[in-house]
Specification:
mainly beta, two-stranded antiparallel ribbon, globular, DUF4249 domain-containing protein, DUF4249
Length: 325
């Protein structure tokens, strides 16, 4: 396969005003392969698009070559199974319609579990996927133990009106000194009945201004469904130390200061212990986005733990702690 690259922008960068050329480039032959994304957790699988962790649901597509500018299309003809360490099938999946623009189903590729299996910490699992005309793929992981959350609080900012619900969220994780562990942290809003009604969003200005090395070593709030705002950390070099999160945050959701309307009653902190492969995948996402398309940046390839294909078979052992507002 051959393509052409316009070199005008590069020539300008190098100070070669008025100079441009078209250079033919040989691209490697592309073999389509299955691409899967799925995260197994120790909680019930996501129930639908409005579930806090809907982004953990199974998605299947086929890879495209770098010269293909069409939107990536999922596929609804895949057979996917989850097996435990003994080889027993503990979960199977079926295609799911998903709302899109204009009220119609969006691109195929989304799946829901048939059995509602809940992952067991400490157990090893294998995800296998196959589809017509492509090689079958598989990936394995061991679901880690759930973390322990300690000393959580949310202090409203006295300079802000109470109905803005802006404040300081603080909590800590009791880390295991015997192992290297990896974490993600989230927070959502619940009403008085314990039903979800929004999320806690971190004020991201300071984080975005920080060096990449700082972003990947401090405990920040992630947002489910947003790859760039999925912020994993490792305890490497500080095993056994208490890991602290203290961030300016605000509550975002379906509520208002109008009298009689439903109001936030709890903040639920969710901390996920994740396997090393899951950590490395999301870490590579951060590095990829932070190159900002710079052709002179150090290459930032995405990690994959799927044998024979691409993607992520991720794991998350969640612990939760509620703070009454």
């Amino acid at each position: 396969m051959r393509t052409s690259l316009l070199r005008g922008a590069l020539a300008t960068t190098l100070g070669l005003a008025g100079c441009e050329s078209v250079v033919p480039v040989d691209l490697p032959t592309h073999t389509p392969r299955l691409s899967v994304a799925y995260t197994l957790s120790n909680h019930a699988p996501p129930a639908g698009e409005r579930d806090f962790f809907d982004s953990r649901s199974l998605y299947v597509s086929t890879s495209q070559d770098v010269g293909n500018i069409n939107r990536l299309a999922g596929r609804a003809d895949a057979t996917v199974e989850l097996r435990d360490a003994s080889g027993q099938v503990v979960e199977q999946f079926r295609p799911r319609g998903r709302g899109g623009y204009g009220g119609t189903d969006s691109t195929q590729g989304f799946y829901v579990p048939r059995r509602g299996y809940v992952g067991q910490p400490g157990q090893r699992y294998t995800l296998r996927a196959s589809a017509p005309s492509v090689e079958a793929v598989e990936a394995t992981l061991t679901l880690p133990a759930a973390p322990i959350i300690e000393a959580a609080s949310y202090t409203l900012d006295p300079a802000q009106p109470n109905y803005y619900y802006r404040g300081r969220l603080t909590f800590s994780i009791r880390d295991n000194a015997a192992t290297t562990d990896y974490y993600l942290a989230y927070a959502q809003i619940l009403d008085a009945a314990g039903q979800p009604m929004g999320i806690v969003e971190q004020e991201y200005g300071a984080r975005n201004d920080a060096e990449l090395a700082i972003k990947l070593t401090r405990l920040d709030l992630s947002q489910p469904g947003y790859l760039y705002q999925t912020l994993p950390i490792s305890d490497a070099g500080r095993q056994g130390q208490r890991l602290n999160c203290s961030v300016d945050a605000y509550l975002s959701g379906n509520f208002s200061p109008i009298a009689g309307s439903a109001q936030p009653a709890f903040i639920e902190i969710i901390v996920s212990s994740i396997p090393a492969d899951t950590y490395e995948f999301y870490q590579s996402i951060q590095r990829f986005y932070d190159t900002e398309g710079n052709p002179f940046a150090e290459p930032a390839p995405l990690r994959s733990n799927v044998q024979g294909g691409y993607g992520l078979f991720g794991g998350a052992a969640d612990a939760t702690l509620r703070i009454r507002l």
